[in-house]
Amino acid sequence: MQLETAFAMDTSSIKYGPGVTKEVGWDMEEQGARRVMVVTDPHLSDKEPVAVTLEALARHGIDAVLYDQASVEPTDISFKEAIHFAADGNFDGFVAVGGGSSIDTAKAANLYATHPADFMTYVNPPIGKGEPVPGPLKPLVAVPTTAGTGSETTGVAIFDFLEIKAKTGIAHRSLRPIKGVVDPNNTRSLPKMIAACTGLDQLTHALEALTALPYSQRPAPEHPKLRPAYQGANPISHIWASRAIEMISRHLVRAIEYPSDDEARGEVLLAATYAGIGFGNGGCHLPHGMSYPVSGMVRDYVPEGYPPGQPLIPHGMAVVLNAPAVFRFTAPANPEMHLYAAKLMGCDISDASVENAGEVLAGSIIEMMRKVGMPNGLRAVGYGPDDVDKLVEGTLPQHRVTKLSPRPASAEDLKQLFLNSLTLW
Ligand SMILES: [Fe+2]
Fold it and tell me: Which residue blocks in 63-118 are alpha helix, DSSP H?
């Protein structure tokens, strides 16, 4: 087998600063857009970030049509509704305002409205056909309002595939927004638990990108167009992921406790973008792969501060609950990198040995989880040992991410990882 020898850095153009949402009219005009679909979710549709966006588009004479039905946890059904809306609307541009779900919905709407196809055509294999996108899409500008998805920088759109109760996605460079408008004014009113979950999602994105299987250990693609967006750890993803881990670890607790702390909140938001560039090129691995069934199989857990009566395990929570067990497991593949990650999180590793690298990193993550009020393991969100086989079954199809684990994980390994994630402290 010939191994990969190349890596690429792909990212959206990013504009960062308090108030930059006001410039989104110009951003779309610059792309030549005259009629734009603005994608958001029902909770945000009457809030300031959307109002500022619509006003900015109107100021530049752009015809903006609001679509506020993006689902907070998108499904194939909610994607298809947005796709219909986009296909009927004859838009020449898209603006997404919201969390990863709104941005991902806009990516899917843009994709299928521009290159119509059966829904499974572009969905990741083995669930879908995973065919490459045939050409460029319409310009999409993403305005994130939660710090943590990094979706403004990636070519990935994630959704729940309802029939098989698992998350999957569509991944192709063409889906990447043309620009991310990263405005700390848009994250000021984020509820604490949402800020904590999205913050830990981005921390885990960066930790996974840093420790992923190196690109040079992946098989070389038969054609350049088949080189995956998630290439494995590489020198470029390393830089962005490292810096993101430092920034989040230093500022997340402050940003959650004091939402009016503009510096901390701004740093966390900027770090989400850095982490997005890191994992958008390097990739994620087991914590993300294992998180999809954890979210998908939720029974009655409702996190503090979320709407009652709507059971939900937020994405960032589902990811980080598996992270300590995963990093204990993957550390033997590259203990130095795991120790380096712990150091970036602020841990003193001067006395640490390579033998306990996994334990040191897991300990740093658990400490952070406790500070921001995460539940104590999968048991606290409603799972027990009897659920583990089903959780493993839901993880196995997530090839795109699990194959980037620095240490291959068999079904038996995954079972043990879920069991070890039931209670964390
Ligand atoms: Fe994530």
Answer: 76-89, 100-114
